[in-house]
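Changelog-adjacent note: as of this version, every example in the card shows the full chain rather than a window. The one below runs 542 residues end to end.
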Amino acid sequence: MSHRLTTTTSATANVSSSSKVSSTSTSLSCSSGGNEYKDLFQFSDPSNPPTISGSANDRDSLLERRPFLIVEGEVVRDDILRSLQQQQSLSSSSSSLEQSSSSNSDTFTSKQFLTSFPSGAYTTSRTVEARRVLRLDQHLSRMAESARLMIGAELQNKDTTHDDDDDEDEASKTIESPSSWQRNFLTNGMMLTASNAANGSTDESIKDLVKKSLASAIASFEHLHPASTDMEKRITTLLFWEQWDNRHTTTGETNDDGIPTTTNGDLRLRVLSYVELLPPPPAGRIIAQLTQTQRANALAKDSQWVMDRKALEQQKLPTNPPVHEVLLTSSSQIVSSDGDEGGGDGRSKLTVLEGLSSNFFAITRDGVVYTAAASEGVLLGTLRSIVIQVCEDNGIEVVEEAPPLPSFVDGDDGGDDRNGWVGAFVSSTTRLALPVTDLIVPSSTTTTNADADADAGGDTVDIVNFSYSGMDMDGGQRDDTSGGGDTQHVGRHLGLSLVEETGSSNSYKVGKCISVNDSKGIMKTIVEGVHEAVLGESERPW
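Full-length structure tokens:
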């Protein structure tokens, strides 16, 4: 596993070169918190704690400023926040982080948080009714499982690729060299052996560590920002590990010969949480764009994926509004009736797997919901199981199979194709069930003529435009709700030009626009059902 930023392996938790993180606890003293918040968090420097921001009625200011906190274990890393501020003001060019002089989640994002530390297991959770974490147990299990799989893969890789001592030493360097501000922010974390982590015997300890971090994140955020006590939060939690040289780690005791004893851990686990206000749900048109790529390892939720997906995010078309989600796909050649691969029309079968940060669902003409299964290489998100349960409770059939791109993209609105889509949506912890209004598909994946895309300039896309009975998805901008209106202007509405237009500076052009409608109201049923279901699927982490 590659690591981007590094720390030294010191047994001391340093705030600076001369001060340490204190273990003195701080109670949350707000009228709505009570004794249940007592001792849930600490400040890294109790002698100089952060200033409590605003009052309990300062909601508008809080929404505008969008503050964040970083918590490690049960310690509010206000020292890290101060370092971020100082580092930016001293020299932004010498820092490997894109930082801001203000503690604002719009200027130092959760993605930057994940990519600022060594890669590891991560999860993004949200609160329900301000303090309850949606699907808490599932998040804890995912973190433990991801850590187990990733550490196990490291051990296997080390055993199979390194045979001599020199190579073993090199393999142990999961942390390369000290880096800027991070070298001064160390904690003991949790010591364990890599083999125990890989076989699952430390799963419960890892879950407990993550749960405490979530509790501390919520409690400390509400303490410092009293207006947030009834506001939803989003928490991004990262668990990573560092090679621990136990030859230099003493327990404070000595053996019979007077030699200091050492711990038996060869890894140090650290858990950090980035907590912010939950962003408001996206409104208006929700655009999704297909790309012919899929995730390498979906079983483990590795923060390295945040780095890997940047290249795919950069492929988003310049639409207005911006593309909301990029969808990963898989393709295989269509087999003709006589058994020849690619026989007949020479097309490839394209199936949609998942989004960069979501699960994907398609609603077919006959009222069936399709979504990819774990065996197809997707990460099963927290909300996916809730969506499936809501469908079952409402008599909506669910098929756990990656939905193939339907025939309507080949020239009509679905016709009698029962598997033709009438709707699509993505699900995630923060977005719940979010309907897609416009699906952008590269023309090379939808045309029956392999040369057609080249004739169109090689940069042509087709657009599937969805409308949903009983739902206004674009603020009233749509002229038709039945799916049968004039669709040639869809491209222009999205900021793209049509193929026949010339002189446009936009190199992406629209070939076909197909409009379809979920006339049965299945999407509305699912969205409302999921919103209701999350209330009963959450619990406090303390």
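Structural remarks: The chain is about 25% helix and 25% strand.
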